[in-house]
């Protein structure tokens, strides 16, 4: 399955007033190889194992395979992950015909707010809310696998 998404910084917390849902997420990586990542995630009360391939030149499109697994197995697999398990809340915000997912990070990535939107094709037009900041699609620095090993609090901004 191909995943087509764009990623943006978020300017402020005003998106929360329109959020339909907020879900706690903990995730870690069993592998952060440049050609693929293998992620373990607990989202709410469910566990997932996800494999993502290398992105295309723009970083917008890449292969993604995901399977739900028992949450107890996900908890065990998180213990095997590389350093830097990420904790965040994911907010779902409807905007026009799309839904933005905004991640509010905690711990060593506290202060970082990132929005993602999934699209049907790379050049699909979508409405941009006023809380949406600069686009960071394809910028490896904002990939969760990077944030595990290079937390936001260590960046020189």
Feature tags:
157 residues, mainly beta, eight-stranded antiparallel beta barrel, CYTH-like_dom_sf, NeuTTM/CthTTM-like, CYTH domain-containing protein, CYTH_domain
Q: Number of helix segments?
A: 2
Helix content: under 10%
Q: How many angstroms separate the termini?
A: 36 Å
Biggest sheet record = 8 strands, antiparallel, barrel
Structural class: mainly beta
Rg value = 15 Å
User: Order of strands across the widest beta sheet?
Assistant: 1-5-4-3-2-6-7-8
Shape: globular
| Regions with little confidence, pLDDT below 50 for 5+ residues | none
Question: How confident is the prediction overall: mean pLDDT?
Answer: 94
SSE layout and pairing:
Layout: E1 2-10, E2 21-31, E3 36-43, E4 46-53, E5 61-69, H1 71-78, E6 86-95, E7 98-105, E8 113-118, E9 132-135, H2 144-149
Antiparallel strand pairs: 1-5, 1-8, 1-9, 2-3, 2-6, 3-4, 4-5, 6-7, 7-8
Protein name: CYTH domain-containing protein
Pfam family, one: CYTH
Organism: Flavobacterium ichthyis
What does this structure look like?
With 157 residues, this protein is mostly beta strands. The chain is built from two helices and nine strands, in the order E-E-E-E-E-H-E-E-E-E-H. 20% of the residues are buried.
